[in-house]
Write a structure and sequence with these properties.
Blueprint: E1 27-34, E2 39-45, E3 50-56, E4 59-65
Antiparallel strand pairs: 1-2, 2-3, 3-4
Length: 72
């Protein structure tokens, strides 16, 4: 997995599928897009869950999350 910079500092939440802290490495940045207020960063957790992170002056927070691809 590749790491990222500038997107840590989430609200202390954990992935509901693997229990890994949302702000911890490793997570893979899939894409990054600028917005009027900051950016939207699509990441993939170590377990495979796809996450959408809103990054702005308040930090980064996960606003949406999928199940891992192999989850039932």
């Amino acid at each position: 997995m590749t790491s990222t910079t500038g997107t840590t500092g989430t609200t202390g939440t954990f992935c509901p599928y693997c229990g890994w802290p949302d702000g911890a490495e490793p997570f893979q940045v899939v894409s990054r897009h600028g917005t009027a207020t900051g950016s939207t960063v699509w990441t993939r957790c170590g377990c495979g869950s796809l996450q959408v992170r809103a990054v702005d002056g308040r930090g980064a927070r996960i606003v949406s999350r999928s199940r891992p691809a192999d989850a039932p």
